[in-house]
């Protein structure tokens, strides 16, 4: 289809949700989903998934290792709305209820190649101490109805959050026909910022 329509380019992403660090918690699982602009569409693979439950490793790192695979291909006519991966981590509280332990999001790397990303996670906080106690007592922590809101700035400024844990992603990125359309996604610099040739419309 891309050959028949030179205005379309492809973005192929595969890799894994490798591991996490949540010093205070154990027996966690992770969900991922992709958020992207209206000009994008998945053509192969899965755009969301849920991992197995894992316990902390017995070595000094005490890491939660999932090695949960990611494999998806997108097509688009416009780099605006470049895909983001949204992560949500869940685990049991003291009463055995599944509660959110962290949200996080990151753009799929713009430059082709292998990439490692460590994503700081956060959780929403109750607005008052009373609400905080009530949510703990009832086993209902504050959480987003739709985790995809994490990838959108709108309305986030009114949410109180608390940093909590990190998740590490390993990703391999391949693009097709972007150069034919005049987009240069040259190698990222040491900070992971896309090369200077990327159009202004691509979110950074």
UniProtKB/TrEMBL annotation:
**Could you tell me which residues belong to the region Disordered?**
184-204
Which keywords describe this protein according to UniProt?
Cell projection, Cilium biogenesis/degradation, Cytoplasm, Cytoskeleton
Q: Which InterPro entries match?
A: C2_B9-type_dom
- Pfam families named among the record's database cross-references: B9-C2 (PF07162)
Superkingdom as given in the UniProt entry: Eukaryota
Choose one Gene Ontology CC annotation of this protein and give it. membrane
User: What quaternary structure, including any partners, is listed in this protein's UniProt entry?
Assistant: Part of the tectonic-like complex (also named B9 complex).
List the PANTHER family.
B9 DOMAIN-CONTAINING (PTHR12968), B9 DOMAIN-CONTAINING PROTEIN 1 (PTHR12968:SF1)
What the protein does?
Answer: Component of the tectonic-like complex, a complex localized at the transition zone of primary cilia and acting as a barrier that prevents diffusion of transmembrane proteins between the cilia and plasma membranes. Required for ciliogenesis and sonic hedgehog/SHH signaling.
User: What is this protein's name?
Assistant: B9 domain-containing protein 1
Source organism phylogeny: Eukaryota, Metazoa, Chordata, Craniata, Vertebrata
Instruction: Identify the coding gene.
Output: B9D1
């Amino acid at each position: 289809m891309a050959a028949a329509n030179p205005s379309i380019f492809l973005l192929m992403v595969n890799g894994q949700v490798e591991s996490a660090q949540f010093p205070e918690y154990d027996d966690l699982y992770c969900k991922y989903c992709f958020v992207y602009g209206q000009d994008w569409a998945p053509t192969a693979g899965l755009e969301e998934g849920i991992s197995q439950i894992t316990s902390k490793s017995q070595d000094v790192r005490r890491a939660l290792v999932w090695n949960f695979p990611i494999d998806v291909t997108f097509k688009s006519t416009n780099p605006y709305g470049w895909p983001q991966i949204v992560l949500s981590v869940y685990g049991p509280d003291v009463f055995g209820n599944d509660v959110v332990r962290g949200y996080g999001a990151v753009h799929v790397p713009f430059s082709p190649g292998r990439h490692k990303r460590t994503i700081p996670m956060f959780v929403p906080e109750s607005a008052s101490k009373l609400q905080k106690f009530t949510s703990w007592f009832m086993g209902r922590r504050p959480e987003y109805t739709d985790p995809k809101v994490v990838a959108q700035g709108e309305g986030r400024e009114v949410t109180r959050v608390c940093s909590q844990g990190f998740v590490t992603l390993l990703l391999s990125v391949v693009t097709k026909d972007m150069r034919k359309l005049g987009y240069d996604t040259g190698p990222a610099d040491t900070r992971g910022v896309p090369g200077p040739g990327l159009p202004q419309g691509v979110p950074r």
